[in-house]
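can u do me a favor
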């Protein structure tokens, strides 16, 4: 399937040799040739060499194909960090189908929304993870029309089997600008947005990140944030590590004790963390840093990380700290290893590619002079040109020249380093997990105990957004516990639950009659 809105500027990335003529499965074949018996991946149950990964992914592709999976079909993949994730990812890609990478924390509410846009043919999950049974999600999907035989629980399957040369030709190799996978956008609307990443742009993304981060075959990566997230998957993430012949350990739950145990057991050299986890790590390291002595690089991204904590990590560990400002839509900015310390502490670094085109604009989309604060617009070789199957989001989210409107408020310093200052988009960022308040508001408004409500994220650098539900109840006041229980029954992901619930008799309105969130946030600040 071709990605949308082909434009000359994007074709030029191929003509000028910026984007590689590569695809993901062929990359795995190359890695298996080059790194063969080296261990590529490990989780709490098993480990796989590059060669074994190729064999299992090929076996899984044949199995899925025999169950009816076809080229261009969308496949909802809901797996925790585990070896199976990569077997399934490469298998689906091998068939030419499109994996839709949903998070293990998503529940039926989110998956139903994604399924509506993706119109998926298959659901692949682990039967149980973190005390939650994914069978309930499968049942919901079957109720929505998914074929029972298209639900695959991977823990019951073996994928091994030698590669059968005859069957090799059964799968047509993709073109470099075909869509390879669909990532999820944090969302600013109540309909989820799917982000089509092409083979060429994603291979570019992870190989260049790995090179720029100076990774090599001796690099050992601990994957502690969900690998379905672009950060851990390809920035450089597990795919970047594999492109260099390194090793990745996949941690299914981000528990700080297990994290530290694995760092020392597996002699981990590099890891990626969201600020909330990095803060926990700082606290934990104060008890002793011996367990972390193998670490040479900690990447922190997905939300703003405070300068104070960045300083603290640097002073506790003899290890590089790298800010990464990125987005599933593409653009990646980060500090380079040889940047001066002051830049590493106070900026989110420079773009990955010399041809990433960053503009800082005012509210009318007009360019601002260098150094001023405005919204960041970006266009470049690995930034998408449009969402999957979503004309409305494409009209709003991109300008007429194909620039993606990030919704982030930034300033660029003279050296082109980005400093993220806030956002103009209506989005909650809870420890790196993003979502649209409008989505949760929709669920709440369907409840007959609520007349009106507003979900407000109050930005707090140290802890991520604090999420406040302002509720105008119909009748009796509601407690936070009652609200959380309601969200759970509605199948809403746990990271969307409120930190506080405040009852109000009326909600303030703006001049045009919308709920005035700025006033609510100011009222909340004055209460604290
Ligand atoms: C990463 O990707 P997404 O798609 O989950 O979220 C993107 C948004 C950005 O637009 C920005 O609002 C925020 O997350 N963000 C940051 C940040 N990194 C991301 N805000 C402040 N400081 C940072 N360092 O979050 C993502 C994707 C790839 C690599 C790293 C992060």
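np, heres the sequence
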């Amino acid at each position: 399937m071709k990605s949308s809105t082909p434009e000359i500027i994007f074709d030029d990335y191929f003509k000028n040799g910026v984007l590689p003529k590569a695809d993901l499965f062929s990359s795995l074949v190359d890695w298996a040739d080059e790194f063969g018996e080296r261990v590529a991946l490990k989780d709490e149950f098993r480990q796989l060499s590059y060669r074994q990964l190729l064999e299992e992914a090929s076996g899984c592709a044949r199995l899925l194909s025999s169950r009816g999976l076809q080229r261009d079909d969308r496949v909802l993949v809901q797996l925790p960090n585990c070896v199976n994730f990569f077997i399934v990812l490469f298998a689906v890609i091998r068939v030419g189908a499109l994996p839709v990478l949903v998070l293990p924390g998503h529940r039926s509410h989110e998956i139903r929304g994604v399924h509506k846009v993706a119109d998926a043919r298959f659901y692949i999950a682990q039967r149980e993870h973190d005390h939650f049974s994914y069978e309930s999600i499968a049942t919901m999907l079957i109720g929505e029309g998914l074929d029972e035989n298209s639900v695959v629980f991977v823990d019951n399957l073996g994928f091994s089997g030698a590669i059968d040369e005859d069957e090799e030709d059964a799968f047509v190799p993709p073109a470099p600008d075909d869509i390879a996978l669909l990532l999820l956008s944090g969302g600013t609307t109540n309909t989820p947005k799917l982000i089509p990443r092409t083979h060429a742009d994603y291979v570019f993304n992870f190989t260049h990140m790995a090179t720029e981060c100076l990774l090599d075959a001796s690099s050992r990566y601990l994957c502690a944030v969900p690998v379905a997230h672009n950060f851990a998957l390809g920035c450089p993430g597990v795919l970047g590590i594999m492109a260099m012949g390194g090793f990745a350990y996949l941690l299914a739950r981000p528990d700080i004790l297990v994290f530290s145990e694995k760092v020392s057991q597996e002699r981990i050299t590099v890891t990626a963390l969201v600020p909330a986890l990095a803060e926990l790590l700082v606290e934990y390291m104060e008890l002793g840093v011996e367990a972390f002595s193998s670490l040479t690089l900690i990447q922190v991204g997905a939300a703003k990380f405070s300068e104070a904590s960045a300083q603290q990590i640097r002073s506790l560990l003899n290890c590089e700290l790298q800010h990464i400002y990125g987005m599933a839509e593409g653009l990646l900015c980060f500090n380079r290893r040889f940047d001066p310390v002051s830049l590493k502490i106070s900026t989110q670094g420079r773009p990955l590619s010399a041809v990433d085109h960053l503009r800082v604009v005012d509210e009318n989309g007009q360019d601002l002079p260098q150094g001023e604060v405005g919204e960041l617009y970006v266009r470049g070789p690995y930034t998408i040109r449009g969402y999957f199957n979503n004309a409305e989001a494409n009209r709003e989210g991109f300008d007429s020249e194909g620039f993606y409107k990030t919704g982030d408020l930034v300033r660029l310093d003279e050296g082109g380093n980005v400093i993220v200052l806030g956002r103009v988009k209506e989005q909650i960022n809870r420890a790196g997990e993003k979502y649209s308040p409008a989505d949760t508001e929709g669920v709440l408004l369907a409840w007959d105990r609520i007349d009106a409500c507003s979900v407000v994220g109050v930005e707090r650098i140290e802890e991520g957004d604090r999420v406040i539900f302002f509720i105008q109840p119909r009748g009796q006041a509601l407690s936070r516990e009652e609200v959380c229980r309601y969200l759970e029954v509605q199948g809403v992901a746990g990271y969307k639950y409120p930190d506080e619930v405040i009852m109000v008799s009326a909600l303030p309105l703006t001049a045009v009659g919308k709920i005035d969130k700025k006033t609510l946030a100011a009222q909340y600040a004055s209460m604290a």
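The longest strand covers residues 404-412. hope that helps!!
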